[in-house]
């Protein structure tokens, strides 16, 4: 399990799997609904400048802009 | 109610009880509004951006086989109804709408209520997550899978029958841009409304990913084709979101929009104004030319003309925003500005209302409903009135062309850019300050869907614009006309006991009347205070007029100088302002006065429509009054500072 990390640390164009989400329960419900749930495969496409949001693509279809602080709270495994 | 009107489940053509409601629900970008337009022959717009369909739209449609009419409702795009944070946001609205109608329809003999979820075939697994939630909220549920055309191009097929079996609710596949989609959806709705309500245990326990995988099948080896489609959005994004080119492009697009508002709208505004003035000139004499004629002419038609003159600006900005939204670029803009906005306590999504506010604050206030976070939403509402709305432009134009014309077009343009920048900068500062003092807390982190780029449909663009215009006329137009009529009364009713000014001997009757009016007396009474900002009673009267709607400033100054048609061609008023002399022969107004009046206009929330909209949106008087208070205090302080600082330079 040495490959555990957070989404914020994933390099561009690398695919990872979401393992755990941290934060407010209601917010997590919303994140899962939107498509960021445990088991989802995610690829980071790019990042905005100066610590801005990440542009990601999920395996279920769909691309999202995700805030970096939020990406830090998403645990992933490569 | 007669037996014939009851829904039956025997499959025979049975008239549905009047008042049946069908709600369209779906994730943002699922093609829901597009389908809604198709079904209702066009009453909603394409909502490509999360929740831009802010109002719950409804329209009646005739169901097939003589089932009668049903009301179709277009609910805002949502990801989840379980995770709604605030009843006022899109998700909250959708949830309370569904729950309330579900409850109401459970009563015996009540009109039936059905939910049709619109699913994006290319994002089926994600869409089915919402299906799972809807299953426990709606007792009549069906699925419409859209974007079948896109799926087809990708070489995929979606098995509707299998999906229906797996989920346990009726399913159809359509392409929203195909006219045949209408009858298919209407037939589905009729079937849903006729069948008895039931629980959807099967649908509420599906595995979205597994289900999607089962029903989608490769038609051929078209992995290449899919890559080709994806590559279009990818290619555009490579430049649109490029670390250096992206932000530059964004600034260029925004500048182009403002330039368009400014330059494209101008000739149209002039033309509309001329028409209303011509109308006034025709009607006036028929009313005898007395007080009544003056009231109808200056008060009512003048007010209506002022309203109409703003339509072109509203249209240009609405079209531009719709284009940005429907094409998918708006989401990219949000991605680019998010980090920057966060410095001031806002999130990137606030870009949409803040941009809209440059046309008019009232639709912008409604556009804040896309913000899920109540605190971010309130903060956005509080700073929106500082953006340079189109109603400020006539006053800016008058002052710039009067007092800066001799400095050349470059200086004039710079002053305008400076005024727009002043609105943005003070908005940012106000937001940062309010976030630390009044509205504590940070905005929720950004999560935003980035839709694939697509070409907007012209018909929806047209309808969205028509709705924007209608909304402006109803919300802002009526206020302007009422304010204009009230202002006429204040400007024409003489102040009891007012002394005749001997210097006005020989002046036109209208000028004398205005000089002795209630408004002039009030303006003079606060002159000792407003003197510090360089405002004399004439400016004060203009500010009274623009308290209701700042659009009225230029017209009011024109009335004070006894001129007609100043909105149309401000040259005479310009000359009057420039040539006006104080009794000791010095110019009455200089660049100093112009700058301080502009500073006042940058800050002051001189717009009762905005106050009313804030009252509606926050459901209290506290916040609208707070906005009035803080913007007027800022406005006066800024005007005094500008007047005095400018004084050092001109002295």
Description:
The complex is a heterodimer of chains A (78) and B (651). Chain A has helices spanning 25-34, 68-72, and strands at 4-6, 15-21, 41-47, 54-58, 63-66, 74-77. With 78 residues, chain A is an alpha+beta fold. The longest helix of chain A has 10 residues, at 25-34. Chain B has a domain at 3-220: 3-Layer(aba) Sandwich (Rossmann fold), CATH 3.40.50.300. In chain B, strand 4, helix 3 and strand 5 form a beta-alpha-beta unit. In chain B, helix 10 runs antiparallel to helix 18 (458-492), helix 17 (409-437) packs parallel to helix 25 and helix 20 crosses helix 22 (537-548). Chain B is elongated. Chains A and B meet through helix 1 and strand 5 of A and helix 3, helix 7, helix 12 and strand 9 of B.
**CATH fourth-tier homologous superfamily of chain A:** Ferrous iron transport protein A (FeoA)
Q: Just name the CATH architecture of chain A.
A: Roll
**What is the name of the CATH architecture of the domain at 3-220 in chain B?**
3-Layer(aba) Sandwich
What series of H and E elements makes up the topology of chain A? EEHEEEHE
CATH topology of chain A: SH3 type barrels
How many beta-strand segments of chain A? Answer: 6
| CATH topology tier name of the domain at 3-220 in chain B | Rossmann fold
Task: Sketch the major β-sheet of chain A.
Answer: 6 strands, antiparallel
Cα end-to-end separation of chain B = 84 Å
**CATH homology group of the domain at 3-220 in chain B:** P-loop containing nucleotide triphosphate hydrolases
Return the structural class of chain A. Answer: alpha+beta
The rough form of chain B would be described as elongated
Q: How far apart are the termini of chain A?
A: 10 Å
Number of helices of chain A: 2
Q: At the first level of CATH, what is the class of chain A?
A: Mainly Beta
Question: How many helical stretches of chain B?
Answer: 27
**Structural class by sheet pairing and helices of chain B:** alpha/beta
Quaternary structure type: heterodimer
CATH class identity of the domain at 3-220 in chain B: Alpha Beta
């Amino acid at each position: 399990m040495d490959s555990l990390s957070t989404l914020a640390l994933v390099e561009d164009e690398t695919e990872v799997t979401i393992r755990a989400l941290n934060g407010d329960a209601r917010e997590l419900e919303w994140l899962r609904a939107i498509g960021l749930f445990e088991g989802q495969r995610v690829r980071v496409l790019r990042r905005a400048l100066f610590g801005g949001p990440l542009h990601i693509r999920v395996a279920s279809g769909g691309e999202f802009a995700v805030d970096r602080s939020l990406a830090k709270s998403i645990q992933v495994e490569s | 109610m007669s037996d014939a009107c009851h829904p039956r489940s025997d499959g025979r053509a049975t008239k549905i009880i009047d008042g049946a409601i069908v709600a369209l629900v779906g994730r943002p970008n699922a093609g829901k509004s597009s389908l809604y337009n198709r079904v209702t022959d066009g009453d909603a717009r394409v909502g490509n951006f999360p929740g831009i369909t802010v109002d719950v739209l409804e329209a009646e449609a005739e169901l097939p086989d003589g089932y009668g009419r049903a009301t179709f409702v277009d609910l805002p795009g949502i990801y989840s109804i379980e995770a709604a944070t605030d009843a006022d946001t899109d998700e909250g609205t959708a949830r309370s709408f569904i729950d309330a109608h579900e409850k109401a329809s459970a009563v015996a003999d009540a009109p039936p209520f059905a939910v049709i979820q619109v699913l994006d075939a290319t994002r089926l697994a994600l869409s089915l997550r919402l299906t799972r939630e809807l299953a426990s909220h709606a007792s009549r549920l069906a699925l419409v899978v859209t974007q079948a055309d896109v799926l087809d191009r990708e070489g995929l097929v979606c098995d509707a029958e299998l999906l229906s079996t797996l989920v346990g609710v009726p399913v159809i596949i359509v392409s929203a841009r195909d006219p045949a989609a209408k009858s298919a959806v209407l037939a589905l709705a009729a079937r849903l409304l006729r069948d008895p309500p039931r629980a959807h245990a099967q649908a509420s326990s599906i595995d979205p990913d597994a289900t999607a995988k089962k029903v989608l099948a490769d038609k051929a080896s078209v992995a290449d084709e899919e890559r080709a489609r994806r590559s279009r959005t990818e290619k555009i994004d490579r430049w649109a979101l490029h670390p250096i080119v992206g932000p530059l492009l964004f600034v260029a697009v925004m500048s182009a929009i403002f330039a368009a508002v400014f330059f494209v709208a101008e000739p149209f505004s002039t033309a509309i104004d001329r028409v209303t003035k011509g109308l006034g000139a025709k009607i006036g004499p028929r009313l005898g030319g007395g007080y009544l004629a003056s009231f109808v002419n200056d008060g009512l038609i003048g007010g209506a003309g002022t309203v109409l003159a703003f339509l072109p600006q509203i249209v240009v900005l609405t079209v531009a925003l719709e284009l940005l939204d429907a094409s998918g670029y708006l989401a990219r803009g949000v991605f680019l500005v998010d980090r920057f906005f966060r410095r001031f306590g806002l999130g990137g999504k606030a870009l949409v209302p803040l941009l809209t506010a440059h046309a008019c604050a009232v639709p912008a206030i409604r556009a804040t409903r896309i913000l899920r976070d109540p605190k971010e939403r309130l903060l956005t509402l509080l700073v929106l009135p500082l953006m340079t709305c189109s109603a400020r432009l006539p006053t800016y134009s008058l002052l710039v062309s009067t007092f800066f014309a001799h400095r050349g077009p470059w200086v004039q343009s710079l002053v305008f850019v400076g005024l727009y920048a002043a609105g943005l900068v003070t908005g940012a500062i106000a937001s940062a300050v309010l976030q630390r003092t009044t509205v504590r807390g940070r905005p929720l982190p950004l999560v935003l869907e980035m839709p694939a780029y697509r070409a907007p449909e012209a018909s929806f663009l047209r309808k969205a614009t028509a709705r924007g215009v209608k909304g402006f006329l109803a919300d802002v137009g009526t206020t302007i006309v009422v304010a204009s009529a009230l202002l006429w009364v204040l400007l024409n009713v003489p102040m009891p006991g007012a002394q005749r000014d001997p210097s006005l001997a020989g002046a036109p009757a209208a000028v004398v009347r205005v000089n002795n009016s209630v408004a002039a007396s009030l303006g003079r009474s606060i002159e000792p205070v407003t003197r510090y900002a360089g405002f004399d009673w004439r400016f004060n009267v203009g500010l009274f007029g623009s308290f209701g709607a700042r659009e009225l400033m230029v017209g009011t100054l024109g009335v004070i100088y006894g001129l007609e048609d100043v909105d149309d061609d401000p040259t005479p008023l310009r000359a009057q302002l420039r040539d006006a002399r104080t009794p000791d022969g010095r110019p009455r107004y200089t660049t100093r006065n112009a700058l301080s009046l502009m500073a006042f206009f940058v800050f002051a929330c001189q717009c009762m429509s905005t106050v009313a909209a804030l009252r509606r949106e926050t459901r209290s008087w506290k916040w609208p009054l707070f906005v009035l208070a803080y913007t007027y205090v800022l406005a006066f302080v800024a005007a005094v500072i500008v007047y005095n600082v400018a004084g050092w330079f001109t002295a």
